[in-house]
Design goal:
Alpha-Beta Plaits, 8 helices, about 210 residues
């Protein structure tokens, strides 16, 4: 018994002169690493348009189904929200499910969503942990790329990327449909019959045979 007390006091004395590893939160806060993953942020381009084009890739990549509801809306010339064909009218993230893995950030083709340094997310009510687009979107007049700058290395100069991140804003440069949601990749190819007799629909012949059997 006494030996245990001596061992405990020895540990105390050995650490008395060391600098504490804790801080008096919330009066003091630690400096976070550059790659810290906290609250999601939806970003804008320099011209004020939203980066998100409502492609659902972030929701598809999320292993915890935390991005559980996105509602896409078509852009119009009278109401252009993003540079693509669509924008996210509704974007809900359930932080109770989120594991802050960053898969959504990696999956996004336009750099629209990043996980930033906001970690004060406690709440008394679970419904308050569902964050909506209005809470996640950068305010107007602010356009950043967030932690993408420290997570993803820029491409080499000889391999310029045909996506808006090259200039940090959508400037009308050639880009793929996957990059900005602009449908410049044809969805359908016309079916050209090279041999009409060979390529005609033969189901009608099959139906006729079945009728004969009956």
């Amino acid at each position: 018994m006494s030996f245990d007390i001596i061992k405990g006091m020895a540990t105390t004395l050995r650490n008395m002169g060391k600098k504490p590893t804790t801080v008096s939160y919330p009066e003091q806060e630690r400096e976070l690493p550059a790659r810290f993953r906290g609250l999601h942020v939806l970003h804008r381009y320099d011209n004020g348009l939203e980066r998100c084009v409502g492609c659902y890739l972030c929701a598809g990549a999320c292993p915890a189904d935390a991005i559980y509801y996105i509602e896409a809306e078509e852009n119009t010339e009278e109401n252009r929200v993003s540079p693509g064909e669509r924008y996210a009218k509704v974007f809900d993230v359930n932080l109770l499910r989120c594991i802050f893995c960053g898969y959504c950030e990696a999956a996004c083709p336009t750099g629209a969503i990043t996980l930033e340094h906001q970690y004060k997310l406690a709440s008394y009510f679970p419904e308050d942990m569902v964050y909506h687009k209005e809470q996640l979107l950068e305010p107007e007049g602010q356009a950043t790329i967030g932690t993408s700058a420290v997570w993803f290395e820029p491409p080499p100069s000889e391999a310029a990327q045909p996506i808006p991140q090259e200039t940090q804003m959508f400037d009308g440069s050639q880009a793929s449909a996957a990059a900005v949601g602009l449908g410049n990749i044809p969805n359908e190819e016309p079916v050209l019959l090279t041999n009409e007799e060979q390529d005609e629909d033969r189901r009608k012949l099959q139906r006729g045979k079945n009728r004969e059997k009956v």
